[in-house]
Amino acid sequence: MARVLSLILVLLLSISALSLISSSQFEGFDSDEASFSYEEEDLEAPLDPLPSASLPTISLSSPLEATPDPEHHPNPSTPTEKPHPNPTTTTPSHLQTDFWDEDEFEGIPSTPETIVIQESTDRESETKSIPESSPDPKPATPIKPSSYWVEIVCVSFLICFIINYFTGRKENETTALAWAAKFATKDSIFEKNFSLLGTGDGNDTPLLLKEGQDVFKFYASGRRYCQGMLATMYMHSRHDLIARVFGWVFPKKDIITFEVIMNDDAMDHVVLAVARKKEVKAMQKDEKDLQKYASPNAVAGPAGKRWVSDELAVISESKEVAWDLFNEAVLDQVFGDKAFEKVGKWFVSLHFSDQQPGLNKKVLLFKFVLPDIKHMADITKLVALVPYYIDIIGRYKLSSNARAKTEAARSKVAQEEFKEMQSARQEALQRRKSERRKQSEEAEAKLSAEALRKREEKERARQLKKSMPRVKMMR
Amino acid sequence: MKEEASATNDPRMPSAAKPYVSPTISPQDLPVDYAGFLAVIFGVFGVIFHYKLCSWLAIIFCAQSLSNMRNFEAEFKQISMAFMFGLMGLITIYFGPARQVKSNR
């Protein structure tokens, strides 16, 4: 990941460097065209017309009143009304002496009246052509809010993101706490089944472990047949506004998984999975233990007896195990046709295996949908399956016939794995040998002619020694 | 189905209780932080090409990456780098020297 990032950065920097080199904006290499700086917002505002340049005129100490211009006031309302004085005569303009320093220069007259400006005839003709009153410059157009649309959108999105972060986090926390209050507090199902609840050692430790804003864990231990149970709640990322919007398009449910690690002596050869028909196929593709041990076809129910709901499919290593684990009590409460209508929307899958890949081989996995706070009681029967199946599988023993089949399957898989390991080792050895050969060949190619002669001589000497008859020393 | 805790048939075994040990996850096994990656990309584009939209997107994806952060040590470097790029882009766009444009006058 880091390598890819660094490569992208280097490429981008090189592109930018090339673009800079190609441009002619370096000092001393300016193009003839005039360049001016601008802000992005200034482009949208219309450019003001340039004010007409008026020549500096000398104003007298007592300004004369100019005659009214007939063009400006063609019809004066009253004859007595005085017209506006000419701005060129009334307002004193900036003189050339305004910026002179009196201390610095000598011989410069102190009063502006005595200055005589000699103007050529060309300059006089120019003054006639320039209008006397320049139009008032327009005020700078205010920057429209539409020019800041990127900033407005992004800042408002960030504000919404921050607000949603806190509200979404609170939603997830309340859902997780509602589950804990229902199933992990005093006189609840897990309190009656496990001696240690929560992730800590002491009594006053928190029940839930918050791994992220959308992942909560509950741990329980101290029960017969099992080492411990870890319940993990995978919530929808409500705290993340982008994920929440994505969730509206592609809806996602909150999931709770129960992972029970069984004792080594407690669980017999059991590989079994129950889920909806589509999900069972996906599980068979993904899970290695189901690929190797479970039969590809779904287990049919025993003749003349009830079986799981039509929505569900059961895959198992042996039919006997499936029939024994899905007894009448379980079918009545959860997996039967009538019971599953009520509980079905919260059920995802069961997966029991004594050949689970990973550190712990013997594992029971329960996967359910986590309901909202109002419907938390609806999954009581599903949660009750966890301690029930711990006891059922802890006590369960296969028949001799079924055990023989399962052991044969396991030994076959073990042999296959051993063969794969051996072939992998052999391949690795062959690779090493070929690499060594290549290295020796390269070294020989590099050697000089003299070195080759010496080597040949040594080899001849060895061969001669080998061909010489062995002499035994007899006493 | 529910197993009631009683004196004779209590499933609880305090002697078998094992405290929870959180599994150590190596940085390689962590899920890919797409938001952080996008934040870095947009941040770099914003700085180099002076696109203010890219810099703003970098800041937004930084916020997303920060909100989804689980392993602080592993992910903080990438997020901080992305945030620096995004912020640097915004500073250069709004407070930096204005770009030069040629005009025919």
Automatic annotation (TrEMBL), chain A:
The UniProt record lists the keyword Transmembrane: yes
Signal sequence range: 1-23
InterPro entries from the UniProt entry: CCDC47
Any one of the GO BP annotations: endoplasmic reticulum calcium ion homeostasis
Keywords assigned by UniProt, alphabetized: Membrane, Signal, Transmembrane, Transmembrane helix
Domain of life of the native organism: Eukaryota
Any one GO molecular-function label of the UniProt entry: calcium ion binding
Compositional bias per record (Low complexity), positions renumbered to this chain: 46-56
GO CC annotation, single: membrane
Protein's recorded name: DUF1682 family protein
Source organism per UniProt: Carex littledalei
Automatic annotation (TrEMBL), chain B:
Superkingdom of source: Eukaryota
An example Gene Ontology molecular-function term: protein folding chaperone
GO process terms (BP): protein insertion into ER membrane
Segments of this protein annotated with the region Disordered: 1-20
Chief place of localization: membrane
Keywords from the named record: Membrane, Transmembrane, Transmembrane helix
This protein's GO CC annotations: endoplasmic reticulum membrane
Localization terms from the record: Membrane
Pfam family, one: ASTER
Xref: InterPro entries: ASTER
Name of the featured protein: Protein Asterix-like protein
Source organism per UniProt: Carex littledalei
